[in-house]
Amino acid sequence: xxxxxxxxxxxxxxxxxxxxxxxxxxxxxxxxxxxxxxxxxxxxxxxxxxxxxxxxxxxxxxxxxxxxxxxxxxxxxxxxxxxxxxxxxxxxxxxxxxxxxxxxxxxxxxxxxxxxxxxxxxxxxxxxxxxxxxxxxxxxxxxxxxxxxxxxxxxxxxxxxxxxxxxxxxxxxxxxxxxxxxxxxxxxxxxxxxxxxxxxxxxxxxxxxxxxxxxxxxxxxxxxxxxxxxxxxxxxxxxxxxxxxxxxxx
Length: 250
Hints:
Number of domains: 1
Oligomer: single chain
Number of strands: 7
Radius of gyration: 17 Å
Largest sheet: 7 strands, parallel
Order of helices and strands: EHEHEHEHEHEHE
Mean pLDDT: 90
Structural class: alpha/beta
Shape: globular
Low-confidence stretches: 143-148
Strand content: 5-15%
CATH class: Alpha Beta
């Protein structure tokens, strides 16, 4: 489904974001154009290596700080200059931060920083790129696609489930719960535009954020996430789904 399309992913310089770019480039049916975004692209050496060996897939490494509106708008203008009237087919909001403090040790400034990144930043990125997603949805000619081949994927976490809350990662979980709510609002806002908006949980993954004790290798998580994405349909929009395709309670 990807080959004729374009995809943008935030937080592409490490962890799940980096591995997603790596696997998409290697996919026979991967996107024609990938915009791999990083807050500090000059230090994204592994991403540069993928770019140099991307074959027929065009990989554009873009500077994008999702907490900075000027950075968001600059990236949007760059993407628009490349995709032109074709629009942007897929937006993956992956960038995030995670701190683990007990309730007694919570720091207001840290909590605000996390919220600003994962919730406000995601909202502003989606808002900026929505016109390009609408263009892609309007131009789609693939009839079998339930959402006209335009999608917003928000990478969340099981820790954002209120029903399954274990009391761990208090600030991070609260931010992910807010992100889940945001996604639901976005899905309702775009429901008549042929755009899908879905929350995905990648599992507990061995990354800088997930730590060495996580049971999932990043390669396995991303492989399963991409399989899930390929199976999503109009019934998936607005839902909270894990890397195995199972729906998670809010």
